[in-house]
Amino acid sequence: MNGVEGPVTASCKPLRGRNGGFSLIELLVVVAIILIIAAIALPSLMHSRMAANEAGAAESVRTVTTGETTYAAACPDIGYSATLQELNTGALCASGKNIIDDVLGASDPSYKSGYQFVYTVSASNGVNIIFTVVGLPVAPGISGNRGFLSDQSGVIRYTLNGSTPLLSSSALQ
C-alpha cells in the first residue's frame, strides 16, 4: 500500500477559508461588552473611593484633635502645638513626639488621601489656647465632597460641598 491505512475521513481534511481564530466582529463584540461593564462599574468605584477618602479625612481631623489634647496635657507650658509637624517631631516638647503619623505631620498644610489639612493656632501670654484644623478635598467632586473642621472643643463640623466649614456648620455624628 501507499502508507495510508483506512479510508480518508472528513475530519482529516484541511479547513478551508477559516483559520480557527476569532473574526474581527467577534472581537469587537467582546470589547464592547467589556466597555459596557466598565461604564457601569466605574461610577460605583469612584463613589466608593470618595466615600473612603471622606471617612479618612474625618478620622484624620479627629486624630489631630485628639493629638492636640494629648499634647496640651503633656506640655502645659506650650499649650496646643504650634504646627502639625510639632505633633510628629516633638521638637519643642519631647512628650509631643509621634502623636500623629508621618503623613499628617510631614508639613503644614499636609496632604493625605486626596485631602489637604490646614492647622492654625492662636496664643495668649505665650501659651497656645485655641486651634483649628480644616480638611478640604484637593479636587472637590473627585477626591471627596465634604469639608471638615474641628477645634479645641473636639466637635467635628462639615459641609457637603467641599467648602471650609464654619463653627456654626452641622456637627458630624
- The helix tally amounts to 2
What is the terminal separation in angstroms? 92 Å
- Summing up helix and strand content along with how strands pair, one would put the structural category as alpha+beta
* Whole-angstrom Rg: 30 Å
**Count of structural domains:** 1
The overall pLDDT, averaged over residues, is: 89
What's the total count of β strands? Answer: 6
**Beta-strand proportion:** 15-25%
Helical fraction equals: 25-40%
Strands in their spatial order, largest beta sheet: 1-2-3-4-5-6
Order of helices and strands: HHEEEEEE
Low-confidence stretches: none
Describe the biggest sheet? 6 strands, antiparallel
3D shape: elongated
Task: Give a concise summary.
This protein is an alpha+beta fold and 173 residues long. The protein has helices at 24-74, 84-89; strands at 110-112, 115-124, 127-137, 147-151, 156-159, 170-171.
Quick tags:
single chain; 173 residues; alpha+beta; 6-stranded antiparallel sheet; 2 helices; 6 strands; elongated
Secondary-structure blueprint:
Blueprint: H1 24-74, H2 84-89, E1 110-112, E2 115-124, E3 127-137, E4 147-151, E5 156-159, E6 170-171
Describe this structure in words.
The chain is elongated. Strands 1-2-3-4-5-6 form a 6-stranded antiparallel beta sheet, covered by helices on one side. The protein contains 2 helices and 6 strands; from the N terminus they run ααββββββ. The chain has 173 residues and is α+β, with helices and mostly antiparallel strands.
